[in-house]
Amino acid sequence: MSGHVKGCASVIQNLYPAALYVHCTNHSLNLAIATTCKIPAIRNCIGSMKETVNLFRMSTKADTLLKNLILESFPNSKQVRLLKFCETRWVEHLESLSLFNDLFPLICTALEELDTENLRSDLSKPHALLTAIQSPQFVIAMAILKPIFALSKHISLCLQQIDCDLSSCVAYANNLYAEISEMRKDSEQSFKLIFESVKTIAAELDLEIKIPRLAKRQTNRDNYEGEPEEYYRRSIYIPFLDHFLDQINERFLKHRELLSKIENILPNKCINLDVIEMQETVRVLEKQWSADVEDPDDFVSEFRMWKRNWLNQTKRSKTFLDALNCCDA
């Protein structure tokens, strides 16, 4: 689609050089999330969840055991199987992640029983999975992912609307960027709420939330000092938010300036601009489409005359309507 030689975008731009190529916004969001989740702690968390889900979905014994535990705890539950993580659409991870998070204590119980019964499988062993998902890094990463995926899922639904144009896409991206920026700015308070939920899960499963062993010279992981809450906030939460903000800015907001200038030539926007704002608009358009903007000064002059004529017409229309109202009275 976007190949520079035979891709659809290159074919169209060869025929119409002034055409502006913009990547599919929903796909851009998908790529932004996928790239952000390559942070080691987040990547390992998602990998462990996928392996656990595959074990329960591909082993009849494991699936039946978890199903019985779910029905025992939630007799009216309609969802009795873990949902598989979509490999291509990362924004669809929310449902799988939410269900995994809600059933986390039952999943741990099922893995313990499977380990006791020495389940034989070609997949990952229950003991190895149980050790992985009961680590502090996993529990905290899972708690961090859920609110971020929830925000991304909402934006993804908006981007798939049939009446969503590029302006709306940038507006949605701006809203997501502002929301994540607010979480990053107030990271201590926002992470405190996440950490409280982690402590609740840890207390239920009798897990100890502690920091990894520190070394004088650490090369394979972060070596922050402090209490567990501060350590995981600085080593997982803040880097994850920073990466996500960078991806949103790179894949969405770089179109923001050009788009705003294009919108300025629409009548409902143009009428509210002053001469300086129009000159800035012309400079951006000249840079993008130099062949179409031959003389920027003529462009601005034409705009000033159009605006004056529009204001005069509006004024005459208002006077005419006022006169009609007086006659009716």
TrEMBL record:
InterPro entries attached to this UniProt entry: IFN-induced_PKR_regulator, RNaseH-like_sf
PANTHER family, per the entry: 52 KDA REPRESSOR OF THE INHIBITOR OF THE PROTEIN KINASE-LIKE PROTEIN-RELATED (PTHR46289), HAT C-TERMINAL DIMERISATION DOMAIN-CONTAINING PROTEIN (PTHR46289:SF17)
Name the UniProt record assigns to this protein: 52 kDa repressor of the inhibitor of the protein kinase-like
Name of the gene this protein is made from: LOC125778805
